């Protein structure tokens, strides 16, 4: 995977410069649960709230913000803006894809993947769609001629494990299988090339630090023609402002036909968030985050994982409680304690976590 081209938003930022945008982030080890707002996002949302209160909010101006965010996200993941649709939630977008799976087809999923990438496909059982679950390490080898779609998260939510996207893509091409990749736990801390998949989904409220409710679908042309825009509304129209009323429907010719009407204030906050991450070298962010996670792992006797998320068995939640008692914010998932390192973290956070865990 490669980093996107140079940012159109000005000079690049170092990780240290980006860290300065996040006040009060000491001990916050939970980007995998909820990102933190940058100073730019806070300022933009406050200004928007004040404008709204004065009766100055403008729908057309919100629309312009959405298009700038769409363009920014496209550049971040290496695709053209006309292949990007906007949405609100991973599960809603995945549900649209699931509704497009042919009757009786097979979808291959990862055993233990986040439910938003599993439940929408299980919900299609009534029309004969079958879902097969395999361990992440076996995903590429499990694709076969019967698999219509392989749906997986690039980074697993519970463990932080990174999928071998190259091997999965190669297997999918061999068997003429489509690929749907959820990049929610990847985009923002590592380079992501969305063009490597038939479709990707990303909810940007985690590592990209946007407000919740800002999600994206990228879709390749050959796959897009197979998708049913079952959530089409006025925002999916070729001319948005001419699509407010029926009975005629003329949907956008590009990926915008899959758009969902945006929750405007969230997109105002997303604009500076996406700009910030476009200005970062995501390979440097990856190296920074992985170095900290591996340092914590080394202090705990865990072999280097090469991930921004470090998790370990914690069935009774004792380690999670120790972290919380020390004023650190972490999370527990699937019987495991889970910490994440992002641009705002540094070596002091590692030391604080080790002291809390008494390692």
UniProtKB/TrEMBL annotation:
Residues 59-299 form the Aminotransferase class V domain. The keyword Flavoprotein does not apply. The keyword Lyase applies. Pfam families: Aminotran_5 (PF00266). SUPFAM superfamilies: PLP-dependent transferases. Keywords: Aminotransferase, Lyase, Transferase. InterPro entries: Aminotrans_V_dom, PyrdxlP-dep_Trfase, PyrdxlP-dep_Trfase_major, PyrdxlP-dep_Trfase_small. One of its GO terms (molecular function) is transaminase activity. It comes from the Bacteria. This is Class V aminotransferase. The lineage of its organism: Bacteria, Bacillati, Actinomycetota, Actinomycetes, Micrococcales.
């Amino acid at each position: 995977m490669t980093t996107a081209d140079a940012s159109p938003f000005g000079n690049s930022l170092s990780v240290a410069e980006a860290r300065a945008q996040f006040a009060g982030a000491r001990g916050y080890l939970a980007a995998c649960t909820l990102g933190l707002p940058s100073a730019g996002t806070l300022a933009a949302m406050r200004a928007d709230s004040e404008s709204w209160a004065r009766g100055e909010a403008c729908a057309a101006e919100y629309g312009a913000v959405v298009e700038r965010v769409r363009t920014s996200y496209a550049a971040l993941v290496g695709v053209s803006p006309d292949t990007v649709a906007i949405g609100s939630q991973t599960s809603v977008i995945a549900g649209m894809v699931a509704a497009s799976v042919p009757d009786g087809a097979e979808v291959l999923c990862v055993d233990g993947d986040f439910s938003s990438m599993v439940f929408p496909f299980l919900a299609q059982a009534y029309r004969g769609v079958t879902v097969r679950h395999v361990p992440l390490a076996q995903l590429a080898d499990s694709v076969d001629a019967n698999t219509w779609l392989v749906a997986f998260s690039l980074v697993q939510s519970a463990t932080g494990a990174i999928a071998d996207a190259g091997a999965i893509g190669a297997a999918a091409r061999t068997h003429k299988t489509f690929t749907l990749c959820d990049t929610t736990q990847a985009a923002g801390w590592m380079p992501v090339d969305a063009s490597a998949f038939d479709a990707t989904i990303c909810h940007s409220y985690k590592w990209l630090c946007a407000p919740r409710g800002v999600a994206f679908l990228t879709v390749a042309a050959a796959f897009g023609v197979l998708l049913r825009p079952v959530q089409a509304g006025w925002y999916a129209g070729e001319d948005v402002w001419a699509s407010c009323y029926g009975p005629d429907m003329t949907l956008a010719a590009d990926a915008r036909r899959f758009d969902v009407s945006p929750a405007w204030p969230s997109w105002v906050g997303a604009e500076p968030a996406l700009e910030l991450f476009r200005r970062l070298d995501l390979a440097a962010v990856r190296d920074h985050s992985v170095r900290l996670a591996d340092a914590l792992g080394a202090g705990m006797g865990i072999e280097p994982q090469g991930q921004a998320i470090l998790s370990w068995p914690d069935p009774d939640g004792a380690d999670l409680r120790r972290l919380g008692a020390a004023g650190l914010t972490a999370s527990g998932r699937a019987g495991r304690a889970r910490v994440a390192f992002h641009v705002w973290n540094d070596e002091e956070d590692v030391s604080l976590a080790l002291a809390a865990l008494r390692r």
